[in-house]
Structure formats: structure tokens, C-alpha cells
Amino acid sequence: DSGVTQTPKHLITATGQRVTLRCSPRSGDLSVYWYQQSLDQGLQFLIQYYNGEERAKGNILERFSAQQFPDLHSELNLSSLELGDSALYFCASSVEGRTPYEQYFGPGTRLTVT
Amino acid sequence: GEDVEQSLFLSVREGDSSVINCTYTDSSSTYLYWYKQEPGAGLQLLTYIFSNMDMKQDQRLTVLLNKKDKHLSLRIADTQTGDSAIYFCAEISDSGYALNFGKGTSLLVTP
């Protein structure tokens, strides 16, 4: 158990809908990262938050957004869902400012868009 | 970001050593990582190596880094059936903190 929790574990929804994925980082970790894992693209970095502020952006679509709240949990919002958004979404956390930037991953949320 | 390349599949017999290889292209990478993903599970951080090191050993795991060739390998000694999983090589990306992953190597350990 990495200490990173994600809910829900599975999500099935229809095209055009909007969903919210939730992540709680390990105790003491200020950074949260979101990654998408799909068969064709592999593991892709989406976005990073550090202590409530956006720190870095990767291959995140405009239809996707995220935020990190004062209690450090984070939510990833996916809207206008398409079939191609079906994937595993992972959250990871780390203590920034302390090398070697070990990132610990949650169990993931499997999103199926039908 | 830069591409991290791994072979897709490796099959070994139980008790043998496994060697999983990775090449990376970002010469500024400071840390390189190995993660393990079992079926239906998240990614587990196995080990990492700093770019000024050539080798790191951690119990059954040995990481070798050839910085000149940008080649990283993970050796698992006395491979067990429980080691069957997908192994990902990763480097720190251009953004500075996010990880840039390879496509993963699926390791199958047969009895």
C-alpha cells in the first residue's frame, strides 16, 4: 500500500458526460501528479499540482482540468467524454524539494466510456 | 518529451536471472527509475539510480547505468513467479518533476 488513495476504483459512463476522479496523497506529500495509462499511448503525464498551485502541464486535453484543495487532495475533472478517454487514471504524490523525487502511485481509477 | 524505449516482452524460467533493458534520450536526466505494475494494480516504485552512479544493488535487484550510451538495465536475480509483471523504466521529464515512462516490458516467469 503506497498510502495514496483514489476513488472511485471503476467508473463507467457515456460519451458526452463529465466525471470527477479523486485522489488523496500520502500524508506529508505536497505534490500531486495525474497520469493517464492507455494501451496505445502508454503512461502519459497530465498535470502536477504543488501545495494547491498548478506546477507543470503535460499532455492534458482542454476538456480535462484539475485542482488541488487546501487539504491537499486533488480532483481530476474530465468533460465531454469520448470513447478514446477510456483509460486508467493514476494519481501519484511526492515530497517536493527533496531528491530523488520519489513518486508513489495510487491504485488508479479505471474509466470506461461507452 | 523525449522517448524512453523498452523491449515489450521477456520470458524467463523460475530461478534464472532476468535483465530488462531501457534506453533514454534526455541527457539531462538526473534520476532514472524502475517501477513494477502487477495486473490490476498501480505502479510500485522498485528502485532508482542517480545519474552519477554506474550501479546500484538492492537485494535481488541490480540497476546498471551506462550514461554514455543512455542505457539503463534492471537485473532481477533468482526470478520468481511473483516477479511476473510489467516493468517500467522512467526518467524525469523536461518539466522537472513529472516522470517520462517507457511503454513497459512484460516479464513472464515460467515454472
Explain the layout of strands and helices.
The complex is a heterodimer of chains A (114) and B (111).
Chain A lengths: L4 E3 L2 E4 L5 E6 L6 E8 L3 E9 L2 E5 L6 E5 L5 E5 L8 E8 L9 E2 L3 E5 L1
Chain B lengths: L3 E3 L2 E5 L4 E7 L6 E7 L5 E8 L4 E4 L2 E6 L4 E6 L8 E8 L6 E3 L3 E6 L1
Q: Measured on Cα atoms, how large is the radius of gyration of chain A? A: 13 Å
Globular, elongated, flat, extended or rod-shaped: what is the shape of chain B? Answer: globular
* Count of β-strands of chain B: 11
| Total number of helices of chain A | 0
Structure summary, number of beta strands of chain A = 11
In the predicted model, the low-confidence regions of chain A spanning at least 5 consecutive residues are none
End-to-end gap of chain A: 31 Å
Task: Give the terminus-to-terminus CA distance of chain B.
Answer: 39 Å
Mean pLDDT of chain B, to the nearest integer, reads 91
Structural class per helix/strand content of chain B?
mainly beta
**Which band does the percent of strand residues of chain B land in?**
over 45%
